[in-house]
Specification:
Elements (H helix, E strand, L loop, with lengths): L13 H7 L8 E3 L4 E3 L2 E3 L3 E3 L2 E3 L2 E3 L2 E4 L4 E3 L2 E8 L2 E3 L2 E9 L4 E3 L2 E2 L2 E4 L4 E7 L10 E5 L3
Parallel strand pairs: 1-4, 2-5, 3-6, 4-7, 5-8, 6-9, 7-9, 8-10, 9-11, 10-12, 11-13, 11-14, 12-15, 13-15
Antiparallel strand pairs: 15-16
Length: 144
Amino acid sequence: MFGKADNAQGLPPAADRAAATPAASPSATVIGPKARFVGEISGDEDIVIQGRFEGNIKVNRRVTVAASGELKGDLHAKSVVVGGRVHGQIRADERAELLASASVQGNVNAPKVVIAEGAQLQGNVAMSTTSGSPAAPVQKAEES
């Protein structure tokens, strides 16, 4: 029932599993869990990072860094969901969400920011009212 695993393997409830490993949309570009990519990505398509990506990303859609994913570089997208590790700046035009499994070293700038309990953030959070116009930082966390 409440707080118990939903099966004999001890897995968390289905809703929690879905949040930790976001599903890719049919038109998403996926960097698989065993892949390593170095370069830059830009475009108008969802991106899901399950492996390692080194470089900058700028897209007009959603970027998801899965729990197994790692990004070393700056990220600018319409919306961002982080479940893995990001070493760089995050800028979202609409929303940025750090899941409980997230570890971010860098600033987060978005009109709406959601930080789950357990997420690690070393940097500043700025909630801007319009794209590219940051408000004063609202949070600074210095965790190791």
